Amino acid sequence: MRLEEAQTNCADAVRRHDPDRYLAGLFVPADTRPLIFALYAFNCEIARLGERSREPMLAAVRLQWWRETVEEAAEGRARAHPVAISLADLFARFSLSMELFAGMLDAREFDIGQETFADLGALETYCEATSASLMQIAAQALGVRADDYLRHAGIAYALAGLLRSVPFHAARRKLYMPLDFLTAEALDPEAVYSGSNGEALARVQRRLAARAREHLALANAIRAPRGARIIALPAALVRPQSRLLTRCANPFRQPLEVPVYRRQLALLRATISGRL
Fold first, then answer.
1. Which residues, 6 or more positions from 110, have their beta carbon under 8 angstroms from its beta carbon?
2. Nearest residue to 10 via CA among 112, 104, 108, 88
3. Over 90: is that where the pLDDT of 250 sits?
4. Which end of the chain, N or C, is less packed with Cβ atoms under 10 Å?
């Protein structure tokens, strides 16, 4: 498969499976956009492992395959996969942090297991290792550094996304909410899976949505280079998503999707203003 074809496949995969990052990626300069979509397509692959297989062992095997694929791509050897081919090109062009890649892959072990987050700190560590690390690697591909800015933006975006997906994760009996927040509302994982106390769950969501806004405010307090602001654009969707979460009385009965046109406006506004 030629590189151009592989990059087109990556962009198509992001458009299908990660529409928010696809919309944000359209604001990346055209000459570097395929490189960013390659990273986002890689993230799609590892983020969906737990969803695509109900057998943890099979998902673990696939996760190990991606570990080896990244290592080989960094050495200039591309496996016969569009994402692998695109990653090998990316590594050939830029010096990217293997530590961040490893952290992303390690964090995805949570997705395929039965573990839960004991507290907010554990949840935010996961958000940093997944969403924030992806932003930091993408910024490296644009030749910029703004680690603190991207860390807060990445955590904010991940928190909002996980809250939006509570019903989806509950259907596969996977919990991303911290147990201490649930305990404060006299909830346990089974109550979340069954959706039996939607009002209490909505209160937990509002607390976590407030935390996402705190990280967004911390990001906006940092002066970051333009390239980093472009990479952080998905976090501009935290505010409209947070407004939905704040008004939600029961996440199992109310849709939590922000309309596409509102997402487009939020991204355009952030691009013009420089604020997420």
1. 126
2. 88
3. no
4. N
C-beta of residue 273 within 8 angstroms of C-beta of residue 32: no
- Domains of the chain with bracketed CATH: 1-96 (no CATH), 116-276 (1.10.600.10)
Q: Where does the chain have alpha helices with state H?
A: 3-17, 19-25, 33-47, 49-52, 56-74, 82-93, 98-107, 109-112, 120-127, 133-141, 147-164, 166-171, 179-184, 189-194, 198-220, 226-231, 238-247, 260-273
User: What tokens appear for 8 in the block?
Assistant: 């087109």
3-class SS of residue 146 = coil
Residues in the chain: 276
Residue at 188: amino acid letter: D
Q: Please, how many CA atoms are within 13 Å of residue 49, restricted to the half-sphere of its CB?
A: 27
Single-letter residue type at 86: S
| 67 touches 124 (CB < 8 A) | no
Handedness of CA 169, 173, 175, 180 (dihedral sign): positive
What is the pTM assigned to this prediction? 0.95
Closest among 113, 112, 109 to 126, alpha carbons compared:
109
Distances (CA, A) of 16 to 110, 142, 160, 201, 242: 24, 24, 20, 29, 23
- The amino acid present at 250, given as its one-letter code, is N
In whole angstroms, what is the distance from residue 155 CA to residue 128 CA? 5
Closest C-alpha to 134, from 115, 161, 153: 153
- Confidence bin at 51 (pLDDT 50/70/90): confident
